[in-house]
Amino acid sequence: MTSTTATATPMVRLRDVSKVYEGRSGTVRAVDGVSLDIARGEVFGIIGYSGAGKSTLVRLINALESPTGGEVVVDGTTLTGLPERGLRPARAGIGFIFQQFNLLRSRTVAGNVAYPLKVAGWPKAKRLARVAELLEFVGLSDKARQYPDQLSGGQKQRVGIARALATSPALLLADEATSALDPETTRDVLDLLRRINLELGVTIVVITHEMSVVSYLCHRVAVMEHGKVVEAGDVYDVFARPQREVTRRFVGTALHDRPSPDVVARLRRRHPGRIVTVAVREDETTGGVPVTALLRQHGVDGTVVFGGITEVGSRPLGSLTYELVGADADVDAVVAELARRTEVVLHDEGPTAGTGGGAHEGVTA
Amino acid sequence: MNSGGVSLWPELLESLGQTLQMVVVTLLVGGFAGLLLGLALYTTRQGNLFANRPVNAVLNVLVNIVRPIPFIIFITGILPLTIAVTGASYGTNAVIFPMTIMATFGTSRIVEQNLVALDPGVVEAARAMGAGPLRIIATVVVPEALGPLILGYTFLFVAIVDMSAMAGAVAGGGLGDFAIVYGYQRFNYVATWTAVAVIVVVVQIAQLVGNLLARRVLRR
Fold this sequence. Notes:
A: Rossmann fold; 6-stranded mixed beta sheet; 12 helices; disordered C terminus; B: mainly alpha; 2 strands
């Protein structure tokens, strides 16, 4: 927000940040040596299961908590080591939206949105104009005089978002902002966040345990486990080629595209041929896999028996599982050709499918 | 209602006036001091705005020492202090002093209990917006808990009426004094039960007003 800040510096810079609690049951390392740069104008996701430390991490970014080690720099200001009084203006310049909305029940919708402006010392006339503008932006102009108890969950979160945007922050932190909402309302709120990023240029950090939120909204993502960032990068790269077990679990639960051992066992009862899962990705290295051409070329029949494909960062990601029926050598050739182009998983063959299956179990290329 | 051929109604009216004086002054002064003490108990709790374990422990012990003392004993026990502060050992003004002290400690717990029930999320939200702790107390903590606080103060009002009745023990005046002097000491049950009836009416009116205010604040 300050004109003196060079646009090249990241909006958020975390350097080896740690937060250690001394609890009754010993030391808890909620955040453990996290280093991250979040660029201006991007939507950055932090994904992890509960207890991974992501909520603590986001509270370190807006200085609701102070780190026990490392350095937090937001918008060019080093927050670490600032006294409480010095942190208040920094916090006022960072929007925060909560899972449980945290609206003031004793104030109207307009009163809630006006609250941060009062804290910032805006005169009344300016406050009223700004509140009207914000409620218009989130589509709640007609609810200005109502109380939070009279609103639906989605409407409450819109009020929370309007309140977070009141002082025109350059950075917005969303802590599980959609986790208390139903799927349809979640989509509306995510669309609103996307609009805020595109139209207002606000940098957004999204904390979530849902991969769908990250793949719909975020440009980059960091995966957290046990207080550490275990994987980070472009959303598509991270989810298309997960390096860590925790990331694979997120992808697996979001896509449900790969058959579990149980599913494979059931499939095999009806499909005696070789069962092969073929990854579907769209990135620089693969221009799609010509499955039909390969099958025709080698005289192999292929039947789609399982699969799932979704969009991650506006690009398709998922897999299809085929039953391949043909001469062993031909099927081997097809599998080899597929494996050259994308990730292929061979599932152990059923007892009726003959020999040679077991050796191929596992992941190739 | 007579005693020895003289009507007691003027006496009863005067006693009601004294009771109301004691109750209102105690409620205002003790209620406000109790609000501050309650806020101190709440905000010095672990993880709260002014988290301070030693201060919280000292306040807790202090409140726990004073509160269980039976009021009738408390009145006589702090008599020297009462004389030093009010210059009198008996009468309505003298008895307001111990009442206020006791009400302060009683209120502090009621206030603390209602504030502890407050969703910490709203306090965190205000902190995230850059608000300082005193502003948060004045604009978030108290307004958000106002409904239950009003009900708490209504409860306190009844407790203070109860306390005021014991003022009779030190000739403090009021309806309790009336019931002892004209009822108990002269075996006049009509006088006793008339005083009781007036107290019941006062309490009923207070409860009605408290409920009405709380309902309005809670919009239910």
